[in-house]
Amino acid sequence: MTLSPDLLLTVAAERLRVTRPELAAHLDLSTSEAFRRAKATLAGGEADGPHDGAAVVMVVGRFSLPNWVQETCRFALSVPAGRTGPWQRSFTRTLFLAGWPNNLKERFTFDHIADDGSTAWIGPAPDEATAALRRLLKSFDGTRELPAWAPTTVAIPVPVGERSAGCHPIHRDLYIATAGVTVSDVLIQVNHLLAEAVLDGLIQPGDRLTLRSVPRLAGLAMQFAALRVDTDTHRPHELRAYAGLTEEI
């Protein structure tokens, strides 16, 4: 698969069309600049009706990429079916706040807390449901660039009693771009990819993901089951593949 500018635009536009076809039908998605304008339009509040949107709030006390990937998948897999629709329609919108979950769990009811207490999640829920928490905490500030790492494999835990007979766990590679990419960028972009992959059924309990760092995904010769494409933070008029989940290996 060659990650050409045309392919990146196709992937980005298709995600928008699948998620909100009624909105995409009225937006110009023919160029990367048009896609950027369409995103700005949706971010301006036209994506959701007055009672339609839902967001997740993630409280981050400490960031370790392997643990965070594993726990993000665990959280997304735990979201009840009745709450996934509004979150998908809000493009898996997630807000990242800085704080220590163990210091907050007496005041706030989290839907998922990482086993080591490093991260916690609330939602998906309407903004008013998390207003108090968002007023209390500041946005997570991960401005350092993410360094490269040796390939690391994580397994998505299987909840007790939920393994299906004949279940066949899948092993995929998760490639993450690091050149000019900050920790905050990774939180945003990889979170979208993982959440959407879970909701699309590409990641299941028991699956294994091998995390691989590359400066850029361009030039990689493999087939991707899912790509996270967004505006390049350093070249706002271009699109970039921030992360990719391969087919089964």
Quick tags:
5-stranded mixed beta sheet; 4-stranded mixed beta sheet; alpha+beta; globular; 8 helices; 249 residues
Which class do the helix and strand fractions yield? alpha+beta
List the strand order in the largest sheet: 5-7-6-9-8
| Main sheet characteristics | 5 strands, mixed
Residues in β-strands, percent: 15-25%
Oligomer: single chain
Number of continuous helical runs:
8
Radius of gyration: 18 Å
Q: What is the count of β-strands?
A: 9
| Fraction of helical residues | 25-40%
**Can you tell me the residue ranges where pLDDT is under 50 for at least 5 consecutive residues?**
46-51
SSE topology string: HHHEHHEHEEHEEHEEE
The overall pLDDT average reads 91
Distance between the termini: 15 Å
Structural shape: globular
General description of the model:
The protein is 34% helix and 22% strand. The protein is an alpha+beta fold. It has a 5-stranded mixed sheet, with helices on both faces. Helix 4 packs parallel to helix 8. The chain is globular and about 50 Å long.
What is the compact description of this entry?
The protein is α+β, with helices and mostly antiparallel strands. It has helices spanning 5-19, 21-24, 32-46, 65-78, 81-89, 101-104, 131-136, 183-199, and strands spanning 55-60, 94-98, 112-113, 119-125, 152-155, 171-177, 208-214, 224-231, 239-246. The protein has 8 helices and 9 strands.
